[in-house]
Design brief:
Layout (H helix, E strand, L loop, with lengths): L1 E7 L8 E8 L13 H14 E8 L1 H7 L1 H16 L6 E5 L12 E4 L7 H24 L5 H4 L5 H10 L10 H4 L3
Parallel strand pairs: 1-4, 4-5
Antiparallel strand pairs: 1-2, 2-3
Length: 183
């Protein structure tokens, strides 16, 4: 099986890291999820779900703090591959320069900007972005005032202002320098 892997939320100050592993035959050419609007990404989900299978590897903000980003990435990749039912002999293409797969996966290729050039990695990227954005919008409903639905946890002026006004929540990554400075 061919598997594409990408993540979202690595640099976010709040919310989970999400790694997605995708297999199947995406219906479209590779598209960089960051170059698509939220509406366009959401519009692609039904077609992706009809042609691909996805494994999700959610890593909480507290796990990112506890284990560090590198180990959190490894944990997310492992969870995504297990969720997908990946086997050691599967061919895996991972976005970026670093192989975060467990050593039992022998056929791993890392490609910088694979999300913009490999359809399966693009599918994983789009799926991850839509799911994490939905999560952050739901978080906004339970934690109003932080603007999670707009900045989805990333370090914007709006987020910094909310942190200054409301303080650090349990959904923030306290090991990240801008958040840590407010503790």
């Amino acid at each position: 099986m061919m598997i594409g892997i990408d993540e979202v939320g690595r640099g976010a100050w709040a919310g989970p890291l999400l790694v997605v592993a995708a297999s199947g035959n995406p219906p479209s050419a590779a598209m960089d999820s960051k170059a698509l609007t939220a509406k366009k990404r959401s519009g692609l989900i039904a077609a992706l779900e009809a042609t691909c299978e996805f494994g999700q590897g959610w890593v909480s903000a507290s796990e990112v703090d506890e284990f560090g980003l590198t180990s959190a990435m490894r944990l997310g990749v492992e969870r995504a591959l297990v969720s997908l039912g990946a086997q050691p002999h599967d061919n895996i293409i991972m976005d970026g320069p670093i192989n975060y797969c467990d050593s039992r996966y022998a056929q791993v290729e890392t490609i910088i900007k694979a999300d913009a050039s490999i359809p399966l990695v693009s599918a994983a990227s789009i799926y991850a972005k839509v799911l994490r954005d939905q999560y952050m919008k739901q978080l906004e409903e339970t934690m109003p005032g932080y603007g999670f639905g707009r900045h989805v946890g990333y370090g914007t002026k709006m987020h910094r202002d909310a942190l200054t006004r409301l303080g650090v929540s349990r959904h923030h990554r306290t090991s990240y320098k801008p958040v840590k400075a407010l503790l």
